[in-house]
Amino acid sequence: MRRGFLSDLFAGVVAKRLTLVETITEKSNQHEFQGTLPLRQLLGVEDRRGVATRFIWLSGEQEALTEDGFMSWSNVRKGKPRAPEFHLYYSTNAVTEMMRADDMLFIALARDGSLLAVVTPAESTIQNQLLWLFGLHDQPMFGFTFQPIEGSSDAELDYIARYILSELGIAPGEPDARELDTLIEPFGLTMPPTRTFSELARSSLPHLSAPDDPDRVLVEWMDREEQLFRRLERRIVAERIAAGFMAPDGADVDGFLSFSLSVQNRRKSRAGQALENHLEAIFIAHGVEHRRGAATENRNKPDFLFPGPMQYRDPAFPASRLTMLGAKSTAKDRWRQILSEADRIPEKHLLTLEPGISENQTREMQARHLQLVLPSRLHVTYRPAQQGWLMNLEAFLSLVKERQTGHG
After folding, report:
1. The whole model's pTM is what?
2. Per-residue b/e over 53-77, b at no fewer than 16 CB within 10 Å?
3. Phi/psi at 37 (5° precision)
4. Are 153 and 135 in contact (CB under 8 A)?
5. CA angle at 67 for the pair 156 and 8, rounded to the nearest 5°
6. What domains, with CATH codes, occur in the chain?
7. What are phi and psi of 175, to 5 degrees?
8. Mean of the per-residue pLDDT values for the chain?
9. Which H helix or E strand runs over 233?
């Protein structure tokens, strides 16, 4: 099934590190960028006044701000016998007021002619994710870098790309959803348990083999379940909105807010449960002994314990043959939670599907004896200096098998 490409959404992007004069501070109130060649490559040489722009500031977990405003692109020497000089002006808003020197700015030209301006702190995870998404392999410095969305820079909208776009509040539609509609038809307008959805996702991709390629299989299963879930969720939400939110005394604002919150919470909890469901299926396919959610010390419950709680509680069982794995669809700052979940196991393992985690975070993980495990497809979203340390799922399975046979 065709998933679409980034070029369906954007024509091109520019990125740069912000200088002090380009931000709104007590020392600068410029509200503009010089129209250098990369900006002309993105916006052309015709004036564009009042271009609708969505401004987004993104940092760490639950740190995001979005405001709608505008940008204007104009030749300030138009009509004068001098070489053109373009400037890009931006409207003041809560996002632009948060911009600081050294932050990374991305300006993407959407297919509908609008602009997307995203500001991220330097060296942050979201910065790395956007650099990968837009095909900016060399980190931009204080001058704009232009990248057309084409060729090798035209990312397929797979699970990884859609994850990053979701951080921007963008949910691309499915170009061909007929197969999905057929699969979810039996559920009507009722959301089934996550385990049921996980089983459906796996059974709908019979050509995949968990024993042969666990890294690919995990991503494909998660991708399919995400497609199925979002498709059914859209139906359910549309039906509820069509019914309206009315109370006897007028609009039911509390009811609407409660429904919206329930939708968001369901998305978050479902993603984590789905990841555990698919990992469990892979462990079973590989014949590794494990226990999901077994209790260790202080009522802690690692997502997966290998071989299991009986061996973990047996002082005579060598700690070197024990393994624990935390599973989080997104790591963000929550990865530290697993550090105290199994005292007998000094080196912890964490599997996540989060692309491009910052070098600062991975250095801290290494210092805390936490090994990051990612499906092979995600390794390219990390910096070259990080990639040699990363472990894929196949390597993790080999490690567990060695320990369980006593050869590790």
Report:
1. 0.90
2. bbbbbbbeeeeeeebebbbbbbbee
3. -55, -45
4. yes
5. 20
6. 6-167 (2.40.330.10), 178-271 (no CATH), 291-404 (3.40.91.80)
7. -60, -35
8. 91
9. helix 214-243
What is the enclosing helix (H) or strand (E) of 203?
A: helix 194-203
DSSP 5: B
Distance (Å, rounded) from C-alpha 362 to C-alpha 166?
23
- pLDDT means per 10 residues in the chain (408 residues)? 84 94 65 90 92 91 84 86 85 90 95 96 92 88 92 88 91 81 94 96 97 97 94 92 87 86 85 96 98 94 97 96 96 88 96 95 96 97 95 98 83
Query: What whole-number distance in Å separates Cα of residue 13 and Cα of residue 310?
Result: 55
Give Cβ neighbours of residue 60 (< 8 Å, ≥ 6 apart): 124, 125, 332, 333
Q: How far apart are CA 124 and CA 52, in angstroms?
A: 27
Q: Which of 326, 317, 292, 309 is nearest to 396 (CA)?
A: 326
